[in-house]
Amino acid sequence: MNPPEDAAVRPVDVLTVTAVRDVTPAVRRVTLTAAAEVVAAAGPTLSLLVPRVDDPAPRWPQVARDGRIVWPQGSHGVALRSYTARRQDPDAGELDIDFVLHGDGPAASWAAAAAPGAVLAVASAAPLGAAPAGWLLLAGDETAIPAISRILATAGPQTRGLALLEVAGPEEEQDLSGPPGVELRWLHRADAAPGSSLLADAVAALPRPDGEDLFAWVGAESATVRVVRADLRGRWGLRRHQHHAIGYWRQGRAMSPAG
Ligand SMILES: Cc1cc2nc3c(=O)[nH]c(=O)nc-3n(C[C@H](O)[C@H](O)[C@H](O)COP(=O)(O)OP(=O)(O)OC[C@H]3O[C@@H](n4cnc5c(N)ncnc54)[C@H](O)[C@@H]3O)c2cc1C
What we know:
By secondary structure, the chain is α/β, with parallel strands linked by helices. 17% of the residues lie in helices and 38% in strands.
């Protein structure tokens, strides 16, 4: 039977793992290869299709004209998760994704077992949501470091601001480069669990910078982001166009109904 006019019109883009290395004890970098145009289009934010490690024969969905994912009927062995392309190099046909090995969930399990030759697919891509400003606040945990690294790398050289980066401890700090006027401040959870109040407390302790040439970008555990967003909208008085604050993961819950 032919699909209806608005149904699946294209297959997803499949990428193959070429290398895997641990950037820190909890972050695994997976390098994938694909045609230059696939790599160029695959980011910075990705809707990633991750095969379940216990399913030997994943069946990929297709993507409809309106961007909807059209799943095959029955079990398909694929989970849909959001990730960030930490690096896209279309000329080399290469893309890096940094996975937090948080120990649970289809994507973290896939990354823990990833080896050259394994495959992933990309259903769609989106921007990071950041906007240029004279003063930037960047706040996130390990899951947001890929996005924050890209925002820092493209920020103008005169940009000032602060990046608050919540990680487990000093062993999880990464080398990030950005404008000299943006301070990198690492927050160590130590014995606290991921999704602690550390990041929200750090934002709550910040005085509001002067002026309106401000932008705040926040990515972390969803409840933390809600608190930070309320603080930035309330105490800082940021308008909608001055911030982008979204939950990157949810404590105790899988991120996507499709997974
Ligand atoms: C736009 C966007 C970009 C993102 N980019 C990245 C990225 O580049 N790298 C990255 O690692 N993550 C990134 N994330 C976060 C990632 O999508 C989530 O962590 C996701 O839940 C992982 O899927 P999973 O299948 O491993 O676990 P799920 O099936 O979603 O969750 C299983 C369990 O693990 C817990 N869990 C999920 N994530 C974490 C965590 N980080 N720490 C502790 N517990 C956790 C959940 O609470 C749940 O109990 C991004 C999220 C968004 C929205």
